[in-house]
Structures are given as C-alpha cells and as structure tokens.
Amino acid sequence: MKKLIYVFILIFSSHVVFAKSNVEGFWTTIDDETNEAKSIVQIYEYQGKYFGRIVELLKNKEAVAALPASPKIEGLDIIWDLEKDDNKYKGGEILDPKKGKVYGCELWRDGDNLIVRGKIAFLGRNQTWLPAKDFKGNSEALVPQKPKLK
Predict the structure, then answer these.
(1) Which of 14, 84, 93, 106 fits a 20 to 30 Å CA distance from 46?
(2) Distance (Å, rounded) from C-alpha 52 to C-alpha 55?
(3) For residue range 107-127, what is the model confidence (pLDDT) as tens digits?
C-alpha cells in the first residue's frame, strides 16, 4: 500500500510540475502605465507552435490596431510562432497593436504567472501576465490568423 501511495504522489507531483510549465490558457494583461487589467489573451497551440490572441478587451472594446485596414484589437492574434524549448517558449514574435510594431518574443512561467518578453536583438522588456482564473472564455481550438502588417 505504501508503494502505491508513493507512486501516486510521484505521478501527481510530476503532473503538477508539467502543468506549471505550460503556457496555454487565458491570461490577464496589465497596462504598463496604469497597472490596471487591460485584456484577456488566450495562448494556444497549433501544429506544434504557440500563438496568442486577444479574446477580450476589458476597456474600450472597439479599439483598433495601428495596422493596415485598422482591425479591431479584440480578436487579434498578437503572438505567433513560438516553439517550446525546455521551460521557455522562444523564436516567435509579438505585436504591440497600439504602435503596430512587432518584436521578438519569449514566454515562460514564474509560479502561477506568465512572463512575456518583447525584444529587439538582446534588448527587451518583460511584462507579467496573471492567470485569468475567473474568465469563462471559449476554449475551442483556434487557428492562427497573423494580421496584415504592411
């Protein structure tokens, strides 16, 4: 019986470690200037790569991106082509929809939070996104839709 309990604890604890390193799900972004919750982003996997879509703006729901055809920010993919590399997700890009600029991107977990790093070469800046635990979004499988940038 003790062996069975030990095996269960080992399996359960390894599952918890795996869950902590996974970035898929819904995340609350925080505005750098106001420190208020700004949007909900869904990080999802598609064909072995990871993407992020703004699924809800918490203020100014009709805001448009500084891109050709001025698409609405809500519903816009802002992260694309990340690949898992151990506990980090690298090699992708992230869009700042307000400025229309694209940066290199990395993601990783820090406890329950998600660290999002936008960068140009070796210079960059981190944001901490919080789990959107109370968000009742649709978890249907998404297909990436990279926005038209030029």
Answers:
(1) 14
(2) 9
(3) 999 999 999 999 998 899 999
Q: Is residue 67 part of a domain?
A: yes
Structure tokens at 41: 């982003």
pTM of the predicted protein model: 0.83
Tell me how many domains the chain contains.
1
8 Å CB contact between 105 and 93: yes
149 in any annotated domain: no
Which residue type occupies 144?
Answer: P
Residue 140: predicted pLDDT: 76
Token output for 83? 């690949």
Dist CA 149 CA 102 (whole Å): 9
- Contact of 30 with 38, CB cutoff 8 Å: yes
The CATH number assigned to the domain holding 122 equals: 2.40.128.520
Please count the CA atoms within 13 angstroms of the CA of 108 that sit on its side-chain side. 10
